Amino acid sequence: VSFCRKEERRVRANDREYNEKFQYANNCIMTSKYNIITFLPVNLFEQFQEVANTYFLFLLILQLIPQISSLSWFTTIVPLVLVLSITAVKDATDDYFRHKSDNQVNNRQSQVLISGILQKEKWMNVRVGDIIKLENNQFVAADLLLLSSKNICTHIPSAHLMILGEVICEPPNNKLDRFCGTLYWRENKYSLSNQNMLLRGCVLRNTESCYGLVIFAGPDTKLMQNSGRTKFKRTSIDRLMNTLVLWIFGFLVCMGVILAIGNAVWEKEVGSLFQSYLPWDPSVDNFLFSAFLAFWSYVIILNTVVPISLYVSVEVIRLGHSYFINWDRRMFCQRCNTPAEARTTTLNEELGQVEYIFSDKTGTLTQNIMTFNKCSINGHAYGEEESGTSLCEKEFLRLDFSFNSLADKDFCFYDQSLLDAIKLGEPLVHEFFRLLSLCHTVMSEEKSEGELVYKAQSPDEGALVTAARNFGFVFRSRTPNTITVQELGRPVTYSLLAILDFNNIRKRMSVVVRSPEGKIRLYCKGADTLLFERLHPCNQDLMNVTSDHLNEYAADGLRTLVLAYRDLSEQQWEDWAAQLHSAERAPDYREDRLAAAYEEIEQDMMLLGATAIEDKLQEGVPETIALLSLANIKIWVLTGDKQETAVNIGYSCKMLTDDMTEVFIINGHTVQSVREELRQKSMPAAHPSSNLLDSISGEYALVISGHSLAHALEADMEREFLDTACVCKAVICCRVTPLQKALVVELVKKHKKAVTLAVGDGANDVSMIKTAHIGVGISGQEGIQAVLASDYSFSQFRFLQRLLLVHGRWSYLRMCRFLCYFFYKNFAFTMVHFWFGFFCGFSAQTVYDQYFITLYNIVYTSLPVLAMGIFDQDVPEQRSLEYPKLYEPGQLNLLFNKREFFICIAQGIYTSVVLFCVPYGVLSQATGSDGIPLADYQTFAVTVATSLVIVVSVQIALDTGYWTAINHFFIWGSLGSYFTILFAMHSNILFSIFPNQFHFVGNAQNTLQQPVVWLTIALATVICIVPVLAFRFLKLDLKPQLSDTVRRAFTKTQIRRSRRPGALGRLGRAGSRRSGYAFAHQEGFGELITSGKNMRLSSLALATFASRHSASWIDTLRKKKVLQLVQGFKHLLATLYSGSGSLVSASFLAVKNKGSDLGSFVI
Amino acid sequence: MGKKVAGSGPCSRIPDNSAFKQQRLPAWSPSLTAETVLPFFYIIGLVCVLLGVALFLTVQKIQEIQVDYTTSGTCDACFEMRSNKMSASVKCRCSVDFSLKENFQEDVFLYYGLVNFHQNLRRYMDSRDDGQLVGRTTNLKNPSTYCEPFAYNNGTPIAPCGAIANSMFNDSFTLKYLPPTGGVVIVPFYRTGIAWYTDKNVKFRNPQIENELLPQVFQGTAQPFYWQKPVYELDPSDPNNNGFINEDFIVWMREAAFPSFKKLYGILNRQSKAIFEHGLPAGNYSVTISYNFPAQYFQGKKLVVLSTVSWFGGKNIFLPIAYIVTGGVILVVAVVLTVVYIKIGKKGLNMEE
């Protein structure tokens, strides 16, 4: 790779002077936007980029033109300043925290090699070209070139690191999966790739320490290059709101035009005569120009239909909801001490509208911990859990393995009879565990005497070998030709004759061993379907019993393996060995010949039993999934796992059940086959017989694998795929790449117009999390990459139900109620001017006092609706979990849409008509009890304003469903403040200071002492409210929402135990026989072990194995799709299997033993 | 995985268990049930109807008479005269006869009314200087720019300035009772006490300069264009009713909200003559108008109104009718709701849906 000379980066190790010439960025990062001086101008500039703010600025300028200024300038500037300052305060707080975190990061300590000595240095002082030392569990300070690492046995003295090499590499970029460079050292050239890099933000794992050369620092690091402009997510309500605001603008202009026309007519007909009392402005020479000015004047006074405080109120409400999420104790995980976190504060109400959830499997649904749970030995089932035992009882029942000094302390098993069987020396039980201790590809490492560490290639195998270890058959060590096992305290060394390796077609593996006594035996473990065919006929009875057990296990979602053995005579072995030998030497069809040879010997086996491994689900996963599906949320599992594993998890978390009509499996490798499979599947699913009953009973599920998905996502097939998938109750995509995860999400987003939520925990989920409307990061034991990309994060999958059904639902409900009321109150307020226009010669005279106009939105009516928007609850939280159907209105977008908007507007306009007409009708003729007419402008203004405040207060009281003390305080407080401010504004004192500003002096007392005025206000209130009440009552009576019903049912009779979804408790034990086989295992390890070439598998070797598996279809995918979305999953690969050997595990922030996901990460 | 013991330790991040943070604030959740809504409807409906009926009966007792004098009676000539610019300032008196069918009991109020006169135009309403009217001497000589073009008369500041003051209604009325026995009795009216107390005492003040009388204070100001006399001579009969605190002026300056309005002119003086002790007796009356205010510029009408009041004010038929209609509609709605509730409703109430 050659770089343009100017662009390339030259770094010389330990040579600061040289490197300084290039002025590379230092390692100080700055994510903050402002400092004290720049804050005001920059922030204001940013805020005025908002259309709404600019609009109000424009209005302000209009108001300064005396000819059209129908309102004082302060009616606009006060709210505008208030809105701007609230936003500014929020921005300032955010930036303060950014400053703080920058400081904290910049001041982290790292060890830098300066003139041969390791010195402590702050991160920000680390320079390009420095060599730094990292220790286990430390964050990587900058993008490093890995020089050396120290694991258990190697030790590199630091002096050796005083190399003076030079690196020439590509300039900084944001491609996480790519690095090109060359290292020149002692006249040698080494090419460098991404494998050699440790990226900033990673954590060093499983490695004591390592040294690295800083290549990119601070803002040049890949992390910072990627953290740039994140795509700003908007909610559907946001988009709707923007549309509506535009419509309102249009409405405003229409009103303005109508009134301007009215003005033209009036000025022509009446105003021209009236000129002797009121001449036109000098600038106005005809009625048309007067109309033009009237238009702008009306734009000014009607501007309150476009609510200036809308956006800021919405933000405040969302912020409140986010805090409620952060504060929720029921979304707090005791074990990891992590509360839930709303990382984005702008998406809350969309949580109440989710229709599709895309979930990762490993680490999200499962804990990626395998436990040996049950087994069936010789027809006897062990490990049946007694249901109903509480946790502490369980602890009590836990088997005591103290007899075995080599036992793993963390292993749990609860069936004493199995241990008794071992102690009694039942031969088959012994043989069972002997098999488990011999037939595997696990490596063991004995750090000190008796302290065994197993490095298993798959967690399943680890669990099996660990089980054997605890039951007294301890696998201690292996060489290419031997396996040493401690059998009940007695060391026995078997010679390993052959490993018949595992692969996906064979679905089994075997070993042939010779015991010290000289007996040759083949041990085999594998999928039931395949092994049962190869048993000796005399096993029939045992097979039936075992297969019953297997069915039970499968129904519980356990992963099963069947174990069998075969005694081989010396002769048999030799014959077969020769055959194997020739197969291995065969020039062509080697694989086929080997398979045939394996096939031959794995016959006539004796059944030993079966194991059942539990892929430990996260807590409460099946319940959560059941609940979410009851809430009509479709859950798609997107996993890198193999099909069997994925299906198995599907069953164990009850996404798939045996009741399902059919589980479609699409597995084709070519476009044609995928299309055919899809067509074939969609026949029954997409056209369920028109009979309603049938369509209910027909539940389908779809399982599609990554290579088929690559074809299914093609432009011409995606529609078909989506249609089929959407008919299915559950969709599982296995062996998908992170890119495909994102594509699937994108597909649903594009075609279904539904809100999607992606949940995951690893770096491979980042693309999906970023693509979905809402990204949820599970902050697992390790990674934070997913969390960093997410909008919400918590530590348990089950919290999703609370997030959606409780918080999301409430947020949506509150936001909708808030918006409805907000538009209503502004229309009711503003449209009165419109009606008054017909009586005041369209002269843009306002109905209200200008102070009332200023304060209406920000003081008199803002807080009650905010309180409702933040605190309202229609049903208590338990109910929304008990009745998941309550979630549906959000998905269907029922509570706030264009129709609801028009209803609100209509109600607002109706209210404005009443508020104008009733006082007009009454006051235009009325006189007070003292004979003084009440038809003066100021009395009218106060009467209308008071009626308005009372009507909207009554309305908010009706809308508020949950009256906390705060609501009471705000509603009564707003009314109180209205009257207080009214009297203050109309007081003598203010008037005597500013007579020209407060000319309503004495008005409040004179008006409000008149009984007629109160009768008018009461009448207007009744006429405004009664229809609303009647409609609501009718709706409640005739078409009650589920929430109304629930609410009423529980307010009436407190006790009525809810029915829990019945599907939960029941074990789907149907007649159909299903194999529970699932084994996260890769081919190729047997060969490695027997070849003896490399007992310490390097991560590289593993990578090759993994990639061999799936490279072909991924290549096809690569050719077709531009890899834009690919994020840091590449690094996972490099690090995943640090386990067995030497290298560093530089997880890209997230490392887990995603052994089973391995295949899919090779890009 | 580190087995941290979380929960109570100082570094535990568990959120507070406060009712506020956990959204468990004690609250009242009212809901619209038939038990609350239907009785509410009946009660409100009933209250409205009863109130309406009570108001209606009260209103029935109030007497009111409106006399349009724009061109009626002998005012025809005056109207013509005012239409002609040449004779705009020539004095003109006319009278209109009318009769009261019933006695006007107790206090009787005399109003003048204008129809189609827009006191509520934005620029008209802005055209005043409250600083000047409250008696600030600085504003007296420097009227606000809002008063333009009625702020200066050839450089002399106008007091009171502005379009409202300029267009002040300046007809005056004399009401005569024509008893059946013959003769003419002039009906006495109080010409003060017709404005709000706050207006008279707070909002409108004469400028005060020590040792100077009103005419001296207003020295250096011009009277509004359309006025026939200066502001300090508005009421020759009562020296305390002159200047900005002249009550006719104050009444005029309180702008009407709608183009048709009436303003209080005087209150019957029941003390001065025994015949009017209980109000105005039924019979024939004549009102003599000093006809100054031109009506053709606003194409409207001028009225004289006589009215009595009750506890809640003058004749106002809209309010009781509106109450009765509203109450009636609410009762009908309540019946409909009840029927719907009993016949169709309730279905939604059971939990099985």
UniProtKB/TrEMBL annotation, chain A:
Protein's name according to its UniProt entry: Phospholipid-transporting ATPase
Family: Belongs to the cation transport ATPase (P-type) (TC 3.A.3) family. Type IV subfamily.
List of residues binding ATP: D360, K361, T362, E461, F502, K525, R559, T639, G640, D641, R735, K741, N764, D765
CDD domains tied to this protein: P-type_ATPase_APLT_Dnf-like
EC category: translocase
Topological type in the membrane: Multi-pass membrane protein
InterPro entries reported for this sequence: ATPase_P-typ_cyto_dom_N (IPR023299), ATPase_P-typ_P_site (IPR018303), ATPase_P-typ_TM_dom_sf (IPR023298), ATPase_P-typ_transduc_dom_A_sf (IPR008250), HAD-like_sf (IPR036412), HAD_sf (IPR023214), P-type_ATPase_IV (IPR006539), P-type_ATPase_N (IPR032631)
Organism this protein belongs to: Scleropages formosus (Asian bonytongue)
Cofactor(s) listed: Mg(2+)
Entry binding sites for Mg(2+): D360, T362, D761, D765
GO molecular function: ATP binding; ATP hydrolysis activity; ATPase-coupled intramembrane lipid transporter activity; magnesium ion binding
Catalyzed reactions per annotation: ATP + H2O + phospholipidSide 1 = ADP + phosphate + phospholipidSide 2
GN (gene name): atp8b2
Domain of life: Eukaryota
Cellular component annotations (GO), alphabetically ordered: plasma membrane; trans-Golgi network
Pfam family, one: Cation_ATPase
Enzyme Commission code(s) on record: 7.6.2.1
Residue span(s) of domain P-type ATPase N-terminal: 11-77
UniProt lineage: Eukaryota, Metazoa, Chordata, Craniata, Vertebrata
Keywords, ordered alphabetically: ATP-binding, Magnesium, Membrane, Metal-binding, Nucleotide-binding, Translocase, Transmembrane, Transmembrane helix
Keyword Glycosyltransferase among UniProt keywords: no
Active site as annotated: D360 (4-aspartylphosphate intermediate)
Gene Ontology biological process: Golgi organization; phospholipid translocation
Cellular localization per UniProt: Membrane
Transmembrane segments: 71-89, 244-266, 286-312, 818-839, 851-871, 901-922, 937-958, 970-993, 1013-1034
Domain P-type ATPase C-terminal: 787-1040
Automatic annotation (TrEMBL), chain B:
Family: Belongs to the CDC50/LEM3 family.
PANTHER family: CELL CYCLE CONTROL PROTEIN, CELL CYCLE CONTROL PROTEIN 50
Keywords: Membrane, Transmembrane, Transmembrane helix
Top-level taxon of origin: Eukaryota
Gene: tmem30c
Record protein name field: Cell cycle control protein
Matches recorded under InterPro entries: CDC50/LEM3_fam
GO biological process assignments: phospholipid translocation
Residues annotated as transmembrane: 40-59, 317-342
A GO cellular-component term linked to this record: Golgi apparatus
Compartments it resides in: Membrane
Presence of the UniProt keyword Repressor in the record: no
Species name: Scleropages formosus (Asian bonytongue)
